[in-house]
């Protein structure tokens, strides 16, 4: 055996825990806490502490090994270390009393003593008694730790007396205290240490505790320890204090009051809890489980400590709360993401404010669900709410759960979205308003910094509303627009000045002098100055333009993809291919048509009625017409049918014609609209050439009442529509018929269809076999400008719409071939369509028989390019000018278009070219007959053109320098007679392109004729023949006029004698001798009654020149060039009626000139550039107005129609699509001087001009004589004083004062209020300065006599022409003194006021010049119907300007102001380009209001002011 005392055992003590026990009657519903106290001491870990222990047991449990039929429990032992480090073992016994669960009486035990006696026992014995753990252990002892009471017996060393100080359960504290007192008495008998444990102090009743303490204080050495088993407070202290009492060697423990001990314990728990929570927070995945986490943390000291203190259950709860927080945080983030994504979804699906502005959120949600993109933004879940579904874990699914939208947050987002849309709309509106404000500020120039502009808009409402970033963005956008516009306008200006660039050789480099010349000319242009702040960009644009001029290709074209060459190639590639395919599908045997497909169009069943009537007259759909049987296939369709276009043209049914029937104005209008749609469809998609030529026939249905009042109206309207659509009209025949349609009508309509079919397919002369494409009889070049505002399809439609059009040979992508009958033979014509820049090389290097020059009448640059190109074309090559615009009405409604069309017609007249017009909005289709006369002219001159080309080539090959000459007087008149055969050329189309009811010129002379075409239609002439004696041909040319004796003349335009004199002056003043066959008379003395230009032969020839030598300048150098005249002088008949063969041959020897020497318009343009850049040129070189004046007449041959609106106003051009006839114009001019002179005489007698009254109310003040409104004391009318005072007080710096019109209603209201009360205050009326200014001007306009008396007008005008300034001003001062005293005072007052206004010109922009423009018509009031007054309007203005500028001198004896006043110093200068005196329009309306006059005069396009 081993030695027993080898290692000393720690001392062992047995403590018996006693207290109130027994039945419920004795102890109440609950015990005093003995079991909990033992449990907490023996097993202090929270997981091992059981708060519920019962003393009511079954007999079995009572007899089990744990209870072992005893009324005490063995709790086991605890090893405890004291402060001194000495360990001891404490065995814990609980003395209780178990109650039978059946009888509720104490169980019978071996010890039958009462509880007080048993509890005081010091020796206990129970064999094999097991340690008690918890109630659940009873009966299941094998599932718990089994530990026997040592040796089955224990000696009690001390007692722990438990007293419950809580409220208790159905128990009186006094009874408990009485029981305790008795028990204490028994315990004290054992002489063992006793300690009182006040239990359940966490629920303590204070006076109970005090009573316990009082009880203990009465006893010797009785200590009270305040405990709480629930919170483990002072439990160990109880037993430690008891052990110290049993073993005095141990240190006495400090007894701590419950509250202090509780705080210490709680602090310990809090610390452990914080540490544990930090451990738990390391878990970030809300999917983690407690089992997984606890396994990971079980060895962590913080985890263990918390488990011991609080237990696993609390730890798990803490963990669960954390996991729930993680989940809620995840849901919150997802919800936040969804809410943040909701505005984007709403912007996508509900971006239209007008749709949702007044919708509630629930209504908007319904709209959302109907959106096609709903599923891409939202998801509808099967289970709701969304945060309790697995959708929260689908982080990659960004779609918003639809049930989320029911939350308040989503509704708030929607409301914010609507408000955002409203504010954004307002912001956009304000940005646009600010943009418009910027657009109204005229002085903002391209490239101007924002800092220079901000001061002008700082008070603008829109500027204040938007942010700085927005304002800068708007201004930047505005700048980009105006810069882009300025650059486009600058580029357009360069094209308008094409003559300045295109007189240079290609592939060259501009010289310094040329660049200086270009800048000198362009610097006068406002569009040049507009880019002043972007000078580098401007220079770049200019150099780019010059580079393109020198190296023109379609790749470098400044119009980019709008280059004419590119567009032409694309169109021809598509159209010619369709033509070739479509031609194979045409009816091959058009001459033997035996079946007619008819489309019948009508409204309200009329189409079906007509079809039924035709079938009634047919036999089995066969109709007899003119001895031939035709099979008819009828397709009636109601005009209202939505399938109209699809039914019209199908693969199975191709109509030969369309009958359009009507019986009312409404149905006629509807039919017209349908035809327009059909033609537009056919033209747009070009499905079939046959459909494009589909014929329409208007048929009027009988009204069944021959006396119907509507019939004449319907007949007239139907005929007008037929004329407009260029289609036949079938009227109701005379007589009374019972049916709506007559047999004669149907036959007439069918005949029209057959004729149209035969015409369309060229039955008489079918298209021959295509020859070799290289064998072209004529080569024509059509030129058009890149970027012109019309489609290429339009200008090519005369060719492409013809069935005789085909593709040119391979490699010529911009050419097409035409087969036309010209003369008696069919000719092949090659049409090459090029841009002007591509045509320059062709003009120089290739043989061209004729040019078709196209320009837009809506674009000055287009005309400028045409002039530049035409100037260098040889005058032997025929030219056809084509003006393009939208409609005929443009000529009458748009002055700019009228001006350009008139200029084109005038140039055509000067160079004896053809002129026509094309209209983009026309509903009919043009044929090549438009150019037939031009082709005929080209063909007749072909030999001469080719001879000239060959001679030029020969000269070039021998390196002989070529000089360009004007045409000689004989050889230049390339006049040919057309053969009398009617088959020599195709006539023009059987209609006037401008319409039957439109005429611009007076009716032609009686000798001019109209020609009937093959169908018997009458049409006017479209060309200008040169010298044709056959007046029955297609030209409005009168019979030839015999020339004057000894002076050979032609009836064509040649160089004007004045023009020749100017040219001669430019060459040098060399003496000439007069030809012997011409009377000695200078050009100035030429017969004024004749309108023929005089040949060079009639001009004086100075010495040193032979008779057959002509002196002419080269185009740019003033060199003397001698040309031997090899032209044979013909007889008069030859000169008038054409050339003989001998003369024709001589043309090959003539060296051609250029067209710029044949047209004063072209020459003057080129000369004007020269004069502007060579200011030292002699006066003889300029075409001055004084040398070209001819009183009482205006010769269209010599004067530019653009600068002479008198004649264009009266005559104009008869038709923008018809070449005017020069000879007719000349003859008309001869009759007009007498009328003008007669008209002027009576007007000189008219001294006063009374304007119409502008007021619509009676007034006793306004409109009264001036002397009735003033007194000697008040020489100024009160109304004038009030207006001037108001203006000078409130609006002297108003921009545009007196120029900007005020509100007309406010002006009238001012005068009406003044009429009622002369003391009214203008300030109180709240009117604008401009309204007051307008009312003031209206006051002077209403005066019976102008403020400046008519009697002094002539003196003022004459005096203003005095050249010496001082003398002129003194003379004007004397004239002012002649004013009536009343007029003088008011005139002085108003001029002084205007002088004050002009002094503020830096802010109001109203200089004396501007004010005079606004005020002179009001103050002087000339008769605008008198042309003599209109011719001096500039002088009128200068008089008023002088008075304003020199106000101090005239009225206050001041000094003369040194202000520039060129207008007053000299008469108005004439335009250097102008070749005639300034002309005025024949009719101008009288000035109804002074405001109207001031707005009209500055914008006068005629240069009269």
Search tags:
1505 residues; 57 helices; alpha/beta; 7-stranded mixed sheet
3D architecture notes:
It is built from 57 helices and 29 strands. Strand 8 (158-164), helix 5 and strand 9 (194-199) form a beta-alpha-beta unit. Helix 8 (258-281) crosses helix 11 and helix 10 packs across helix 11 (312-349).
Topology:
Elements: E1 12-19, H1 24-27, H2 34-42, E2 56-57, H3 59-63, E3 72-81, E4 87-95, E5 99-100, H4 115-119, E6 123-125, E7 153-155, E8 158-164, H5 173-189, E9 194-199, H6 206-217, E10 223-226, H7 235-246, H8 258-281, H9 290-297, H10 301-310, H11 312-349, H12 353-356, H13 361-369, H14 374-377, E11 378-379, E12 400-401, H15 408-440, H16 454-457, H17 461-465, H18 468-496, H19 498-501, H20 512-522, H21 526-529, H22 535-550, H23 564-583, E13 595-602, H24 606-616, E14 622-625, E15 628-638, H25 644-648, E16 657-662, H26 665-685, H27 689-692, E17 695-700, H28 710-725, E18 729-730, H29 743-760, E19 778-784, H30 792-800, E20 805-807, E21 815-822, E22 825-835, H31 836-845, E23 850-856, H32 860-871, E24 879-885, H33 889-893, H34 895-910, E25 914-919, H35 932-940, H36 942-957, E26 1011-1012, E27 1018-1019, H37 1057-1067, E28 1109-1112, E29 1121-1124, H38 1132-1137, H39 1141-1146, H40 1160-1173, H41 1185-1188, H42 1205-1210, H43 1222-1244, H44 1278-1290, H45 1304-1316, H46 1322-1325, H47 1329-1342, H48 1353-1359, H49 1365-1376, H50 1381-1399, H51 1401-1404, ...
Parallel strand pairs: 1-4, 1-8, 2-5, 8-9, 9-10, 11-12, 13-15, 13-16, 16-17, 17-18, 19-22, 19-23, 23-24, 24-25
Antiparallel strand pairs: 3-4, 6-7, 14-15, 20-21, 21-22, 26-27, 28-29
Helix pairs in contact: 8-10, 8-11, 10-11, 11-15, 15-18, 18-22, 18-32, 20-40, 44-47, 45-47, 52-54, 52-57
